[in-house]
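Sample 3 of the quickstart, ligand succinic acid:
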Amino acid sequence: MASVLVVGSGLAGLIAAIRATDAGHTVTLVTKAALPDSNTRYAQGGIAAAMFPDDSVESHLVDTLRAGAGLCDPAAARVLCMEGPARVRDLIRFGVDFDRDESGVTRGLEAAHSRSRVLHAGGDATGAAIESALVATVRERAERALTLPAGTDGAGPRLLVREHTMLVDLVVEGGRVGGAILLGPDGELQSLTADSVILATGGAGSLYPHTTNPALATGDGVAAAWRAGAAVADLEFYQFHPTALAVPGTPLVSEAVRGEGAVLRNALGTRFMLDVHPGAELAPRDVVARSIAHEMAGQDGAPVLLDATGLGRELLEHRFPTITAACRKAGLDWAAEPIPVAPAAHYWMGGVLTDIWGRASLPGLYAVGETARTGAHGANRLASNSLLEAAVFADRAVRALGVSPVAGVDAGADTVHGTMDSRHAAAPSGRSPRPFADRDGIQRVMWQYAGVLRSGEGLAAAATTLAGWNRPATGPDADPRLDMQIQAYEDANLFDLARITVAAALGREESRGAHYRSDFPSSRPELAHTVALSRATVETTETNTEAEEAIAC
Ligand code: SIN
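Result:
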């Protein structure tokens, strides 16, 4: 049995920890804040799975591939749709109470699904319901593990939970990941050794000023993997949710609201989506987000309106209690009047390149959930496939621990092509008197140039601006206060990720899925995935050969 370090406590990390203890491994679960603090908690719409008699895995797969705009790895998408129902049943076993009516489990419709297949809990509190059931399971196991005699083999699985502990970097020895450097709640850096590390740190919504993610979503796992030398892929594909409430904090207004019949109107009261796509408000997410951005540009940046008044107060309050509360907090009564909405950064299709077993390109390293780029989502994730992906691939990663602990996905495999100009990703020297990057600056650049609508000119300007900043200084010498240390490590991660994301977006001279460039408005199907190797690889290669060879195709 192996020692396993799981980093992150959303659905993916919690499932990984639970399944790894089931398998008899010794597990340490570390998480940056308290155990329940994660992106999962904010998920509303639900979890999509072919669980109903009028549905099929094939139909779910077709919808997933169509949304992915030709960039899905079909094997990953098939695994997602095939194993999804079993993983949803696991969640029910772990105590998730999906909403029901007299005919059984109820289901919602979301954009680009050909039928209703989205299970939800607590109305629009699906993520919170999943998170609290899994946290209870993990806490119960961790408490039980504490009562076992130390070091008694076979006495039962060990599970140690360390909250308020941040991943700083991965430890690589002999080309293999063998643990991590962590920043503990005492402000000390410590090294933890493990046979395998499973990254489940979520996405990086904090790259943008407007996001549906909590502030802790700073891409820590993706950045650390990249620095360690693992391949990361498709970072240019960041999904913007069309409808975040346009108030401070930009809370999510679930697509399920449009699934129930709410419509979008511009400042003149016109339903603009009718002219854009046959699916109207339920067109693919990227189409709706871009249309809203265009409408906003034509009305001096003012948000568009989501009109849910036709649904009636009772349905809104019962089916969407979280959104109703967010509206109330903002002084809005959405049963009586349309509410202002605008796109916000929501989900990263890119991430640590993995195979369909969650294995990264470095032996000993696994990535699951939003941290991973399994290929299941392609250029644009289908609504409510994210919780499903987390559950399916966390389970598979744990199964792979025992089967093939030293294999890694091949970053140069046939399925992976594309180019990225590494000059934009190269790290600044640090010796010049440049200003240090800060979060506001990074977010401003990313929103303006690498947001919903992009252009080559804008992305080049972003690359130049980022290259003119020094990476934020980290460590106790920079500032010994714990909160400032955490923030500095987060900002440094965001800076690394902003640079490679902009470089990837600049390299992708087409529009596809969530990546839209006004200078290349058409899709170029011959372009496939973009893979970025680590900064260390870039720097080493740059001194020896041509920079363009450093970022692989
Ligand atoms: C939503 O409820 O609209 C979000 C669902 C998702 O991101 O899949």
